[in-house]
Every structure is written in structure tokens, then in C-alpha cells.
Amino acid sequence: MLGFSSYVHGNAMKRREFLAMLGAPAAALPTTSALAQLRLPRASSELETATTSAGGWLAGRWTYRSFHNNPAPVADDPRTAAENALNLLFAEAVLTFELPSDTTVKGTLDWDGGGLDLNGTIHPGSADAGPSLEIVGTGRLGTDTAGWEYDYRGQLAHQWPSGVNQIPALVGTVIRAKPHDGSPAGYVASFIAVKRPEMRGPN
């Protein structure tokens, strides 16, 4: 479950639900036994090994967040800082990737009440830059996202040799390629997607 309700690109955030989550009881948090089942990378060297395999760094689930490119500071007024920060969020969803081949990727971008189907290309990295992605997200026939199209360009964030338990992250931009629901084509936001831990299977 995400930290607060996922929502579609450009739609209003359910602020009351988010504020309620801020006051969630301790019982809502993962138990120690549940946390023990999560597998995080042990060191940057492990991440580097994953990036050298054929898309091994990419397959799986990621938490996706995109942001309005608004340069205005959010904390000038403490009374509105939290709301200003929340208003920077363009969308939150779950990315799921699978790899038909070494150079292609497909998957889904899902949120409460909707989603997009993804198809794209993986470009290998170099000594100076990580692998990158070009992805087209299309809406689903018979759903509220029918006719939507969003295009994504992202790159694996730099892996620090001295980093400790660094979690893989994709950084990039997204553009609304086709208008929908009164929102014009051409709008650009920035995004960060963070790799979710894998659940360990039984030994």
C-alpha cells in the first residue's frame, strides 16, 4: 500500500486521506517479521553487478512519483509549507517492469482507479552515465484512461562506489503526449521512481 492514495496525472489529491495517513497508528506500520522478509541491496557493488546484467536492475516493481517543475520555494511560510510541498506532486503510482528482451521493456503504471500500459526501449549505459529508458504509456480501452498517452525518458541514477545500501532510482521527465479531460498536450513534469524491495521466498 502506498503512503497516500495514488492518483492520475493532473487530478486533485485527496488531502484529507493524506492527512489521515500522517496520523496512522503504529499498528498500521510493518511488523519486524515483515521487514525481515524485505531484501534491500547490501552495497553499491551489488547494484553495479545488477546493472551489468541484461536489464536485471530494471525488472520488478518501483514506486513512481512525478512533480510539477515549479521553482518557487515551499517553506517560506510555515503555515502553508506542507500544502505547498504536497501541491508539487503531479502523480504517484506503481511501476511494474518486465523484460521481453535485453533491449525492450514492457509493463504497467497503476494507481487507484486507473493505469497505463507501457512499452519501451532500454539503452545501455557507459562509464559516465547509467542505462536509460524510452517508454510510451498508453491508456486502456474501456477505462477512464482510454486515449491517453504519456511519454517517458529516464535514466538509472548514479551508483556511488562508497554508497551504503543505495537503492536503485530512475530519474527523468514525462510529457503528456495527447490531450485528455481538458488538459493540453505538451505538459512536462519530472519524475523519480524508487525500486521496491523484493520479498524473500522460503529457504
Q: Which key features would you list for this structure?
A:
14% helix, disordered N terminus, 10 strands, 203 residues, Lipocalin, alpha+beta
Helices and strands, with pairings:
Blueprint: H1 15-22, H2 32-36, E1 38-39, H3 44-52, E2 60-67, H4 81-87, E3 89-98, E4 104-111, E5 114-123, E6 132-139, E7 149-156, E8 169-176, E9 188-195, E10 198-199
Antiparallel strand pairs: 1-10, 2-3, 2-9, 3-4, 4-5, 5-6, 6-7, 7-8, 8-9
The separation of the N and C termini measures 26 Å
What low-confidence regions span 5 or more consecutive residues with pLDDT below 50? 1-54
When the domains are counted, the total is: 1
N-to-C order of helices and strands: HHEHEHEEEEEEEE
Radius of gyration from the alpha-carbon trace, in angstroms: 18 Å
- Overall average pLDDT: 79
Number of helices: 4
The tally of strands reads 10
Question: In this structure, how is the largest beta sheet organized?
Answer: 8 strands, antiparallel, barrel
Written account of the structure:
This protein has a single domain, classed as Lipocalin, CATH 2.40.128. The protein is built from four helices and ten strands; from the N terminus they run H-H-E-H-E-H-E-E-E-E-E-E-E-E. It has helices at residues 15-22, 32-36, 44-52, 81-87, and strands spanning 38-39, 60-67, 89-98, 104-111, 114-123, 132-139, 149-156, 169-176, 188-195, 198-199. The strands form two sheets. An eight-stranded antiparallel β-barrel has the order 2-3-4-5-6-7-8-9. A hairpin with an 8-residue loop joins strand 5 (114-123) and strand 6 (132-139). The two termini are 26 Å apart.
